[in-house]
Specification:
The protein is α+β, with helices and mostly antiparallel strands. A hairpin with a 2-residue loop joins strand 2 and strand 3. Helix 5 packs antiparallel against helix 6. The longest helix is centred in the first third of the chain and has 29 residues. About 35% of the residues are buried.
């Protein structure tokens, strides 16, 4: 059975729901209790400052370190050279440290996912916890001069981490967690009319469409803003969100974007919203893909 079939079965395991809900609420309360500082930490761990999920970057550390440890162990076992054994031990420690950082970032991202990705992510995380525990046991065994046991535990841990990585791939490629949901949409290259000016009310987000692609329009005073309407985080409808000054907050997970340039003001989103130029001509609001000039034009 392929990974997709297995994850489908995992998604139907309702007995995991109490664990899932308890953990999610605990993580949310932890960040909320920190107030503005907690929110800043949460955004940092999401990777809003990076423009890319931080978790994906951090996972390279344990994977690379543990792979190196396996190689050093193999050379050590064949040649009985002490320096390779020490290198394997050091690589294990680097991997464990990196895994802890990746786990914190991953847990932060996980709390802002929806079923079935949330349940698949829970199992993915638990498997990684198991692999870290086995790697830690391996390190303890090595320190007690039980290198054979240490190598065996490392091999078992590496196999478990490999399976967990496959579930991580399903989250990205199957469930589209961490990818830009606003990318690849066809936006007009030249100005096209999308709505009569009289139909756009002040301070009310409105969805219009260009060849089936949803576009968000917002009027603020004598200015008209236009963004891709599909939230880059998980595809939420920004037209159903709340305006906060010159920004819009997604109704699904609370990501907040600047109407001016689409940049992320608050996570969990890490990818900015695509912007469009907007103008009013002959009583019609016209939009086009942002040209690199000022992203918002004054309505006339």
């Amino acid at each position: 059975m392929g990974t997709t079939g297995v994850t489908g079965k995992i998604a139907r395991q309702d007995w995991l729901k109490p664990v899932e809900d308890t953990l999610r609420k605990g993580v949310q309360r932890a960040y909320e209790s920190g107030g503005p500082r907690g929110r800043k930490i949460k955004n940092w761990l999401h990777g809003t400052w990076l423009g890319h999920p931080l978790h994906a970057v951090l996972t390279d550390v344990p994977i690379g370190a543990w792979t190196a440890a396996m190689c050093f162990d193999l050379v050590d076992a064949i040649g009985d050279r002490e320096e390779f054994g020490k290198a394997a031990d050091a690589a294990l420690m680097v991997g464990i440290a990196g895994a802890l950082g990746a786990a914190v970032a991953g847990l932060t991202d996980w709390q802002d996912t929806d079923p079935p990705a949330r349940r698949i992510g829970l199992v993915h995380g638990l498997m990684n916890v198991g692999s870290v525990a086995l790697f830690t046991g391996s390190l303890v065994a090595r320190k007690r001069d039980s290198r054979g046991l240490g190598r065996g535990l490392s091999a078992l841990a590496y196999a478990l981490a490999t399976v967990a990585a496959q579930f991580g791939g399903e989250l990205v490629y199957g469930q589209r967690v961490g990818v830009d949901h606003s990318a690849g949409q066809k936006l007009p290259e030249d100005f096209v009319p999308v709505l009569a000016e009289s139909e756009l009310r002040e301070g009310t987000p409105q969805r219009v469409r260009y060849e089936g692609v949803p576009i968000l329009l917002v009027r603020r005073g004598n200015r008209v803003f236009a963004l891709a309407e599909t939230c880059s985080h998980m595809g939420g409808p920004l037209s159903e969100g709340r305006l906060i000054d010159d920004s819009v907050k997604c109704p699904w997970h609370g990501s907040q974007f600047s109407l001016e340039d689409g940049r992320v003001l608050d996570g969990p989103a890490v990818h900015p919203q695509p912007c469009l130029d907007a103008r009013v001509r002959n009583g019609q609001i016209e939009v086009r893909k942002a040209s690199g000039q000022p992203l918002v034009r004054t309505a006339t």
